[in-house]
Amino acid sequence: MNDRFKTALWLIGYTFLAGLMLAIFSMLTEIYKYLFSLLALYIGIRFFRRFETLGMRIAFFVLAIVFYLLIAVIIAAVIYLRDNSLPVTV
User: What pTM value is reported for the model?
Assistant: First the structure.
């Protein structure tokens, strides 16, 4: 496989996991929600050890925020659709 393609896949994988952990953290209210913030921090530390260039680190932050926002919107939409039934038209 091409090195640039592998690097892009690693970047997307790490940022998706970090965004998912942050989205779960923002949705929970119990005390164990902090476990997900620690997991996101751990994922970030692992990424920074693996990729040391400034461009990759900036891309990690930007894409993690983008994935967090996308996942949070999807989760909110699913919860809304689950709790509010559609009106029946006759």
Answer: 0.86
- Collapsing DSSP to helix, strand or coil, 84 comes out as coil
**pLDDT category of residue 1 using cuts at 50, 70 and 90:** confident
Q: Which residues contact 57 (CB under 8 A, 6 or more apart)?
A: 47, 48, 51
Would you call 65 exposed, middle or buried from its count of C-beta atoms within 10 A (0-12, 13-18, 19+)? middle
Question: How far is residue 27's CA from residue 36's CA, in Å, rounded to a whole number?
Answer: 11
pLDDT at 89: 77
90 domain-assigned: no
In a domain, 88, yes or no: no
As given in the structure block, the two tokens for residue 30 are: 């119990």
Residue with the bigger pLDDT between 81 and 89: it is 81
Tell me, yes or no, whether 89 lies in a domain: no
Tokens of 49: 């050890």
